[in-house]
Fold this protein.
Amino acid sequence: MYAVAIVPAAGRGERMGADKALLDLGGLTAIERVVRSCRAGGVDEVIVVRRDGAEALPAGLPARVVVVPSGGEMADSLRAAAALLPVDGATGADAVVVFPVDHALVEAETVAALLHALAGGAQVALPLFRDRPGHPIALRRRIFAGITAPNTVLRDLVRAAGAARVVPSANPWVHADLDRPEDLRAARCALAGQPWSPVAQMFRHRSHRSYRPDAVPTAQLERLVDAARHASTSSFIQAYAVVAVTDPARRGECARLCGGQRHIVEAPVFAAVCADLHKLATACTRHGQRLAADSFELFLQTTIDAVLLGQNLQLAAEAEGLGACMIGAARNHPGELARLLGLPPHCYVVFGMTIGVPADDPIPRGRMPLDGVLHLDHYRSELVDAVIEGADEGMRAWARRSNAERGGYNQKPLSETKGWADRMAESWGEHSSYLAARRTLRDELRRLGFGLE
Ligand SMILES: Cc1cc2nc3c(=O)[nH]c(=O)nc-3n(C[C@H](O)[C@H](O)[C@H](O)COP(=O)(O)O)c2cc1C
């Protein structure tokens, strides 16, 4: 079967701010990756569609180029390329693979699987990731020829062909495209061999409290939460859930219930990280048992599970160039927040998390001397005074630097005389306003279905 790939790469890349075909993806440009995947996947010939005036493609690229006027749609690109397909007959193309350059991280094995499906009799084949179809799309030449009809788009051809053969793929990039800078950051991190040290990332952590309006693509959010939930989970209970709130009005409501924090409104995502025993309760019911919902131990287990997922989620987001801030104020009004998010019984928000492209650049806070945290063989309480003095001095040094270099922290100037200990005493002593805000927490948790006995 003679296969030709058509690679639409004629857009201006306005949202990306760069010509997508020429983006560097691990040492190869996006277009080189696509052409390489096509050839390695069994494609005989590649046609790349470029817009008039676009920069030249890398020299020696084994592909033909067809130029279209600027500003057209993908279907225009496909029509232009269709005119270049080898003529029907002995040397005619039997299969056409439409492989937009936006999906440059799709690998050769997907192309090979699609062509295999066509060779097996399918008229159209497309990859499926998490039940959602994506690109590239392979079509028999006869089906693809329909693109030459005016006002026809690729989707019409797929529909008209009837049931398309789906090829399951483990590669999220079949439906996540390279559209915005954050997609590019994610793509670069996702590339095999990309040097990324999770430990170095942990040292770079800072909470971000100001965000650009750019959305976090759903595919990226899915990938981050999917990765995050691979944290260890007590007895494999997986007793967590994440409600990702992207609707601005709902985020506003969440902010209202979380002390009016501005960054909840500003960030494109407010992820409510929930302890969730609802699935466990359902499992018990299905097997003739009642969930031990009164158990304090079970409450701790589900809470710990949620916390582990939450920390992983923050680290994963940071690894992909996003910023985040956990929101403990989600426990100010747990009942109301649960109702707003439609949580079932036995489910509460342990903390929220703002996620987005950061617009601030806070000085990292550092941490207290390690002697106060890591003890070898036995706890060394005799070091606590020195540790606290070190923490005080660290806090003052951070305040001085934040004031000098950033005009303060979270848009406010910082006291340079206060240390860590006096701040902690203010926040967590007997007159704590934080604790006052949570006075009803235990009763509210009980109403949400946690016995805490
Ligand atoms: C469970 C939890 C809840 C938090 N809640 C809030 C919050 O409601 N609002 C906020 O601005 N920061 C919140 N933070 C962020 C902390 O203030 C921040 O992590 C801490 O000051 C250390 O700063 P850093 O994260 O920049 O290193 C929370 C952090 C955690 C772990």
Notes: The longest strand covers residues 347-356.
